[in-house]
Write a structure and sequence with these properties.
The protein is α+β, with helices and mostly antiparallel strands and about 425 residues long. The protein has 12 helices and 18 strands. The chain has helices at about 55-65, 115-120, 120-125, 125-150, 190-200, 235-265, 270, 285-290, 305-310, 365-375, 385-390, 405-415, and strands at about 15-30, 35-40, 45-50, 70-80, 85-100, 155, 160, 175, 180-185, 200-210, 220-230, 280, 320, 335, 340-345, 345-350, 355-365, 400-405. Helix 4 (about 125-150) packs antiparallel against helix 6 and helix 4 (about 125-150) packs across helix 12 (about 405-415). The longest helix has 29 residues, at about 235-265. Homodimer.
Length: about 425
């Protein structure tokens, strides 16, 4: 029997007869020879079919096949230096699985973004999307490897929650039987804090939701986030862990998906520079720098996308901005003992204008301080009683962070908009398909 081989593995089978199961990406046909562009989910290859090698009626059917029809081809793998994968297939057998009756809606011509998003279920088949999702897969794989190699435990945190982790103004609420209102999780952090008191070093990876009416190229309503939490970690320990993680992700993606990045037009040399340690600046110094550059911003204002771009554009690797004012940060962040007006937190800004990819802090571990902060933020103490309990029984200093998967994908791939960084984007005006 002819072995079924993936396109990505064809180079190891030069001179052998193989079987490819896939789809017709494109074709160029003539009277005596047809060039079939094929894909199978692992890569892309050209198949050359000569009329003399198969039944005349079947050759006629192949010539009439519409784009994205499914087929199985068999033939001999031949070296081809012009091919991006170094080979092509000399086809001697074709089995048509499904011949499309209508034209494939996404042709080689230019389409508007609304059209492509409306046909996202089909757009995923395109070559560009193939490369993006391959990189995304390698990013998530690297994240998991990094933690498991360091003896972190995976903790699956809940999607439904009664405790708000960030701002109440951007939550999705819903009725939960007779319990009352619950929220779609903005973060799994609070639950990871409970888990790190049991397991020491923990991480999660899952969907999170923000009901923000934002239409920027950096925002999604539903996105995936990886979070980590470590008992006995200080703010400094936390920043070092973030640096190590981001370096590991970037270097592993270069190692495993360099050809995909090149296909996307990414400048690999810029990514190769992403190695720890990363440059750091305090929020206070960042404000001074922005003011010197003529920006109308004062201490206590949050940094906007333009400000982040200005700060990070001076670097060839991510920039860590630390110690923000406590009034613009979440209730759970530990005050700086040297300056109680700021908290021991940091944001990591990706270079080249991609903005914040990591948000982090040392957590408040003293019960009285936490209760006071909950009151300052006007959050209901009773809803956080379980979280307060963590400070009642064996509390220790601890720290953690969250890294946005899609923002990381967008940065590493060099995408103009975050909607391409996730298979099915949920934006302010889109939940279809």
């Amino acid at each position: 029997m002819t072995p079924w081989i993936s396109i990505k593995d064809l180079k190891a089978h030069i001179g052998e007869r193989v079987e490819i199961r896939g789809w017709l990406r494109n074709k160029r046909t003539g009277g005596k020879i047809s060039f079939l562009q094929l894909r199978d989910g692992t890569g892309f290859v050209q198949g050359v079919l000569e009329k003399s090698t198969i039944d005349e009626e079947l050759y006629s059917k192949v010539k009439k096949l519409k784009i994205e029809s499914s087929l199985i081809i068999r033939g001999t793998v031949k070296e081809d230096t012009r091919s991006t994968i170094g080979v092509e297939i000399s086809i001697d057998e074709v089995e048509i699985i499904h011949a499309n009756e209508t034209d494939y809606p996404i042709s080689n011509k230019e389409h508007g973004i609304d059209f492509l998003m409306e046909h996202r279920h089909l757009w995923l088949r395109s070559q560009r999307q193939f490369h993006i999702l391959k990189v995304r897969n390698e990013i998530i794989k690297a994240m998991r490897e990094f933690y498991l190699n360091r003896d972190f435990k995976l903790i699956d945190t809940p999607i439904f929650t009664g405790s708000i982790g960030e701002s109440a103004g951007n939550t999705f609420s819903m009725e939960y039987f007779d319990y009352g209102d619950v929220y779609l999780a903005q973060t799994g952090q609070l639950y990871l804090e409970a888990a790190c008191m049991a397991q020491g070093k923990v991480f999660n990876l899952g969907p999170t939701f923000r009901a923000e009416k934002s239409k920027t190229r950096r925002h999604l309503i539903e996105f995936w986030m990886n979070e980590a939490e470590v008992a006995y970690y200080t703010h400094e320990d936390n920043m070092k862990l973030q640096e190590d993680l981001v370096e590991y992700i970037v270097q592993k993606v270069i190692e495993r998906a360099e050809e995909n990045l090149i296909a996307l037009g990414r400048d690999i040399d810029k990514l190769k520079n992403v190695k720890a340690p990363f440059p750091r600046i305090t929020y206070t110094d960042a404000i001074k720098l922005l003011q010197e550059k003529g920006y109308d911003i004062k201490w206590g204002d949050d940094l906007g996308a333009e400000h982040e771009t200005v700060l990070s554009s001076q670097q060839d690797k991510p920039l860590i901005v630390e110690k923000y004012p406590k009034d613009i940060k979440a209730f759970y962040m530990q005050p700086d003992p040297e300056n109680p007006d700021v908290v021991l937190c940091d944001d990591m800004l990706a270079p080249e204008g991609y903005g914040e990819i990591v948000g982090a802090s040392e957590r408040i571990w003293e019960k009285d301080v936490l209760i006071e902060r909950l009151k300052e933020k006007d959050l209901p103490i009773e809803d956080y009683q379980w979280y307060i309990d963590l400070r009642e029984f064996g509390s220790v200093p601890h720290s953690g962070f969250g890294i946005g998967v899609e923002r990381t994908v967008a940065w590493i791939c060099g995408l103009n908009h975050i909607r391409e960084a996730i298979p099915f984007a949920r934006t302010l005006y889109r939940v279809y398909p």
